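User: Structure tokens for this complex, please. No commentary.
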Amino acid sequence: MTIPIIEVENVYKYYKQARKSFSDKNKYVKAVNGVSFSLYEGESFGLVGESGSGKSTLGQVILQLINQTSGTVKYRGKNVSTYTKKELKAWRKQVQIVFQNPYASLNPKKTIGWIMEEPLNIHRIGNKAFRRQRVMEVLEEVGLDHTFMDRYPHELSGGQRQRVAIASAIILEPEFMVIDEGVSALDVSVQAQILNLLKRLQRKYRLTYLFISHDLNVVQYFCDRIAVMYLGEIVEIGETEELGRSLKHPYTKALFSSILSLDESEELKLLDGNLPSLLEI
Ligand code: ADP
Ligand code: MG
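Assistant:
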């Protein structure tokens, strides 16, 4: 775990707030306020914090879906702001994002087969027969049979839609994925299935994950390292195993306290009940 795949250096993202009248001064929301960290190849890195703490903004800056106000994002040592158009397009194949609400991100008028083939079409990969084959293969990998090709998003359950979103993300065989609240909208038992699926895909495709969630329980289960965000800053960062033991910031103490205050048997019961099938990993 020594090669950084992502390096975030002193990144700020301020959003300008709409002015109520012309005489108002410009005001800014400091969504990300001086963040630095590195992500290493093959790890699952968790970004946890309450709603509005800047997690999604940071994830989108890392993928350059929005531009930072200042600071640098490097991918494999190269500043992503200096990519040429061609380099950017090639990089877009290597990095993917999965959002919380797959219903919003899946085109309701298109079949699952069409939706999944689209990234292959954009990047002009293979001929029609190859693309169809690849779509079926990947559908199977995420636990959906080929009959899903002809179905529409509204015909699917939340968990199935999230499987499709994950399938579309991995179809180009990326090396890095941002999962932004990827299981937050799902029932607890379905959450566990999707987390298991993500683990399986991580091994198969040697993926590195930036796993964003407001849910510390899920992050602790899924991630090797965790960064805690609070008001746009990373206030705590460390290995998952270690993090609970040496908390410095009052916010993270509060965040972890519900888990830390339980005695061990209670804790096990709680975690067991929450994420049963994780034991299958
Ligand atoms: P999180 O993902 O942790 O919930 P976000 O990154 O979505 O946090 O938001 C961080 C802060 O930035 C919040 O105060 C939010 O209201 C604000 N924000 C997010 N996106 C925008 C935007 N496009 N324009 C203005 N403010 C935004
Ligand atoms: Mg968010």
